[in-house]
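Q: What does the predicted 3D structure of 5'-3' exonuclease look like?
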Amino acid sequence: MLMLLDTPSLYFRAFYGIPESMTAPDGMPVNAVRGLIDMIATLVRQYRPAELVATMDADWRPAFRVSAIPTYKAHRVAHGDVEEVPDTLVPQIPVIEQVLDALGIARLECEGYEADDVIGTLTHRSKGAVDIVTGDRDLFQLVDDSRPVRVLYTARGIRNLQVVDEGFVSEKYGIPGRGYADFATLRGDPSDGLPGVAGVGEKTAASLITRFGSLHHLMEALDGGVTEGFPAGARLKLAAARDYLSVAPAVVEVASDAPLPDADLTLPAAPKDPEALVRLADRYDLNSPLNRLLNELAKSAG
């Protein structure tokens, strides 16, 4: 089984879930670093994946999405095109990357793409089962019971993951199990700066996707003059949002063809660079969480 980590989602969760009083000897907060290491140890212990990838944001706000919808994540911009990130988290991100590299855990990113797109591409390439660990509902669009592809959703914590499959999506949102991206396009998502169709909320979006099966078929019906199956006023609202609907799918749908570099995705049994790992453990006081993770990696190999 291949496990894909939405690493930014996880280290943000760790940062806000663990006090900043967790520091290195020099006083630098390492709450996100320690939290992420412990999360990975928990995941390895519970799921024993054969392959594991920590996906990263090479570009948190890709140009192709911003050109389609300029408001995309605009409210999270600190200045220029730099994401607003807490000052005490910023220096922890390079440490996270160094720790992952020293461990030998595959860390993948792709210029011009988000971590979600790396996940989408690796999921598309994989022939077997995939578990995606994230706190981002956008990745619900990748669930596929036939393989299976599941999302392990972190909203209730890493030790109480919600397993999201097609049945969960259908029950939660009242839509076909593979229809989350089209549903989200209609509904919109203020947290990502996606306006959605004005006047179309979750219930209307769900009824439209359920009735027509997909956004593509919905727009075909709209263009063809079909009236049956549209809630009152929905045709006018959709027609008014045609410009948005023509570009939104390219923003909402995660990429499946990001040009990723070749990498060994195998879960390491032992550190790739033990000396570097010892230096990092000593400098940032990471011995306890790293020992827990190394113990689980060894058990998985055994």
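A (community wiki): The structure tokens above were generated from the sequence. The chain has a mean pLDDT of 94. The first helix runs from residue 7 to 17.
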